[in-house]
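thought: user wants a sequence for this fold. calling inverse folding tool.
action: design(structure=
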């Protein structure tokens, strides 16, 4: 397959990334994951927009603009013949001897990207289980940063408990998943954490909010208490890679009857209609 390296398309054996890249030293960079449905990028402009926003929030200037980035990502998808899958793209602050402060003039960001093909045909959204984990991340979770250590540890803890995803909470206040946003449904009302520095403003979340608006589905953008999630009627998580995934259990306690509920199902149907 073909990879993106800065402004070029290269084969794996042509890729040279410096041992002194600040991505290795500090996780000093940002990234995006964009879904491809039927050979077409879904919400590409939103993802690319967020990539440049994340870069700007860490005071990093990318060497080319959003239009060119989009063209490059589209080319990568085409070159690799991706029909169902995703694209990953990241940008680090570049390679320079290890000092914490920004490197001097002349050090340019390093952009890399790859595609991943899924098994033929879109995999149906699975029902998943969650494990609650204390959210020990920093205060700028709105930045899609390469620093994912707390997310990695949370996901690992969930997996070791036989769960698919970690349900992060700050002292009992639910924020999001380790790589997803989360929603609860109680008495016909959807609850989800408001957009703030404590969560990533998920693109799938945005599409789901649009679906809610179209369906006249009430949403309370108020944080949920962890103690309240167990008795919710429905629960689901959203992400680029999973779309909308119904949650069957949290910490081993079944949600509803353990199967996707009516609100979740209606949103999944509305979401599907928006896909290319
Ligand atoms: N994760 N919250 C976090 C912490 C995330 O890392 C992600 C995405 C989301 C969902 O955002 P979106 O709907 O824009 O994908 C929420 C990606 C998929 C990843 O790290 O692989």
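)
observation: tool returned 276 residues.
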């Amino acid at each position: 397959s073909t990879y993106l390296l800065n402004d070029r398309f290269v084969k794996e054996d042509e890729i040279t990334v410096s041992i002194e890249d600040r991505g290795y030293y500090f996780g000093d960079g940002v990234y995006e994951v964009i879904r491809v449905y039927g050979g077409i990028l879904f919400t590409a402009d939103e993802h690319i927009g967020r990539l440049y926003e994340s870069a700007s929030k860490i005071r990093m200037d990318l060497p080319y603009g959003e239009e060119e980035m989009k063209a490059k990502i589209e080319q990568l998808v085409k070159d690799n013949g991706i029909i169902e899958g995703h694209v990953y793209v990241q940008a680090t602050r570049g390679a320079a001897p290890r000092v914490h402060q920004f490197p001097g003039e002349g050090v340019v960001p390093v952009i890399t990207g790859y595609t991943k093909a899924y098994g033929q045909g879109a995999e149906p959204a699975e029902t998943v289980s969650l494990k609650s984990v204390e959210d020990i991340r920093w205060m700028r979770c709105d930045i899609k940063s390469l620093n994912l250590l707390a997310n990695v540890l949370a996901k690992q803890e969930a997996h070791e408990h036989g769960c698919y995803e970690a349900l992060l909470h700050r002292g009992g206040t639910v924020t999001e998943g380790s790589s997803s946003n989360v929603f609860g449904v109680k008495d016909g009302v959807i609850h989800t954490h408001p957009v703030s520095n404590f969560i990533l403003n998920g693109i799938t979340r945005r599409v789901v909010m649009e679906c809610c608006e179209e369906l006249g589905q009430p949403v309370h953008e108020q944080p949920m208490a962890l103690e309240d999630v167990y008795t919710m009627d429905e629960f689901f998580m959203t992400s680029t890679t999973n779309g909308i995934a119904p949650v069957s259990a949290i910490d081993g306690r079944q949600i509803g009857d353990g199967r996707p509920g009516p609100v979740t199902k209606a949103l999944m149907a509305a979401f599907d209609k928006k896909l290319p």
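thought: summarizing for user.
answer: Here is the designed sequence. The pocket of N-(5'-phosphopyridoxyl)-D-alanine is lined by residues 33, 151, 176, 179-181, 200, 202-205, 238-241 (CB under 6 Å).
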